[in-house]
Amino acid sequence: MAQVLQIQAQVITSPIPPSVVDPNLVAVKLIGVCAHHANVRQAALIFSHLANPNIFAHNAILKAITQNSHWLLAIHFFNSQILSPNAPNPDEFTFTSVLKACAGLAHVLNGQKIHALVTKQGFESNLFVRNSLIDMYFKVGYLLIARLLFDEMCVRDVVSWNTLISGYCLCGRVDEARWVFDRMSDKNFVSWSTMISGYARMGKLEDARLLFDEIPERNVVCWNAMIAGYAQNEKYSDAMEVFRRMQQIGVVPNEVTLVSVLPACAHLGALDLGKWIDGFISRRGMSLNLGLFLGNALADMYAKCGCITEARRVFDKMQHRDVVSWSIIICGLAMHGHTDEAFRCFQEMLDCGVKPNDVVFMGLLTACTHAGLVEKGLHCFNSMDKDYGVGPKVEHYGCVIDLLSRAGELDKAEDMIRSMPMEPNVIVWGALLGGCRIYRDSARGERVVQRILELDSDHSGSYVYLANVYSSMGRFNDAAKCRLRMRDNGVVKTPGCSWIEVDNAVHEFFMGDLSHPESEKIYSMIRELMWKMKLAGYKPKTDLVVHNIDEEEKEDALSIHSEKLAIAFGLISTAEGATIRVVKNLRICNDCHDAAKIISGIVKREIIVRDRSRFHHFKDGVCSCRDYW
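Given the sequence above, the corresponding C-alpha cells read:
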C-alpha cells in the first residue's frame, strides 16, 4: 500500500502527459490495488484527481466500493454518474456492480429502478446483467420474478444456473435448488459447493455429506463448503476430521478454510491444531498482511484455548481491526479473570476511535462478574446507553443479575428483574437461581424455579436444583419425586462432557466413561490420585451427590466426573511437566474444582480448565479464580 501512495504522489506532482499514458489507465490500476487492501477512501481520492474519468475509471471505483460492501455509497455514486452531464453512460459492468449493492441492502425499490434503467438502456438481455438481476431479486425475496427472468433467458451459462441454485438455497428452498441442480448438464465446483452450503444452512448435514462424497473431483471451494457446514452446525469434530482428510490428499487450504476450522479448534480446545494453522499462516507469508477475518479467528482461537498472551500477539500484528477484533480480546481477558486489563483494553479501543457494541459490554460485565466488582459492573451497565448509545439487551441484564447474585445481593438482583423493560428469560432467572444455590436461599430458590418452569417446562437445571435442595434437607422422598417428575416429563439433564487434545487428536469424556481405549490406565490413575489427594487433605464433597446412597458410593461417583477422567488421561498421555488443558461444556463442580487444585500441587503441573463461563488456571494448589466463580 505504501508503494501505491508513492506512485500516486509522483503522478500528482509530476503528471505523465496524456499523450504518453492515459491517466485513466493508471487510475484504474491504482484503484484496483486500493480495493484489494480495503482502502476505499484512498481509491476515491485517486478517482477524484481525474480530470475526465472514462467508463473504465467509473466502473473501477464502483467495483472497489461494492467489493468492500459499502452498498449505500455505491448507489450514491451510481446516481451521481447518472445525473452528471459529463459522465459516461453506464455499461454492463456498471449495472452488475450497482445491482450487487441493491442486493446487499435488500433494497427492492432501488433494484426495480435500476432494472427499469437496464431495460431502457438495452442491457436486459445481456448475460452478465441478467445474472445480476436474478441474484438481486432472490436477495430481496422476489423469487417468482427471479425465476421468470431465468426462464426467459435465451442464452444461459453456468453462472446463471448457479445463481438460481444459490437463490433458492438462500431462501431455504433447498428441494427446489436440488431439482435445478440435478438438471444441470455442466456443473462446476461452485455448483457443488453452493448446494452443499444450502443443505448445511438448513441443518441437513447428512444430505450435504452425501453430495460432497459424490463430487467427482474436489477443489478447495468444495472442501471449504463441507468444513464450514459442519462448523456452523456445531459439529466441530467432524469439521476437523474433514480438514485433516483434506490435508492428507494434498489440497492446500486457503484463508476461507482456516477461518472455518479455527472456530472448531476454539470450541474443542484443540490448541495443537490451532498452533499448526498459525505456523501455516507464517510459512505462507500470510502473517505479513493478516486479513481481518483470519486475524479475528486466530486471536479468538488462542483466547478460547487459554493462551491470552498469544491472542494479544495476533491482535497487535493485525493491520486492520474492527469492533469484533476488540471484543475478542476484551472477552478473552474477561474469561481469564483479567478485569483490569479488559478495562484498559476498552479505553485503548475508545482512544482508537472505535465505537463499542453490545458484545464489548458483555465482556466488561463478565469481567466484573468474575472479579465480584459490583459497583464497577453497575457503573459500566448504566453507562452503556447514557454514554455510548448501546441499549442493554436481556443478556446484559442477565449478566448484571449474575454479578449481584454471586456477590450475595439477592434482593437487589430480584428487584432488578422486576424493573427490567423486557420480559426476563430463563437465563436471567437462572442467574438468580445460581445465587440461591451458592447462598443456600432455598425459599427464594423454590420460587425462582417455579418462574423458570413456567417459561420452560423442560429446564433440567431447575429440577436438579430442587432435587439437590431436598436432598440437602434430608427430604430424599421429595428429591426422588423430583427426579421422577423429570423422567415422566421427558426432561433430560445435559450430560457433563470434557475434551482434551493429545497428539493432535481430541478425546471426549463423559461421567463414568468406559469407552476410551485407555480406560484401564485412566481409572488406575484416578485411584492413585484419589489416594494421594486424601493424604494431601482432600475431602470429597459428597453433599453434591443427590442419590440416597452410602458415602463410599458417593465418593466413587464424584471420582468419575468427566473433567477428572480428562485430567487423568492427560497425565498418563503427556510428558512430565506439560500443561494439561481441558474444556468442559458445563460449569465445573465444587468437588472437581477442589480436586484440580490439589492435583496441580501433587503432580507439579499447571492444569487449565475452561468451563462454560471462564478459565480456571490451577497451579501449585491454587486457582486463578481465587475460588470465586
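The CA atoms of residues 46 and 540 lie 71 Å apart. Try to locate this feature in the C-alpha cell string yourself.
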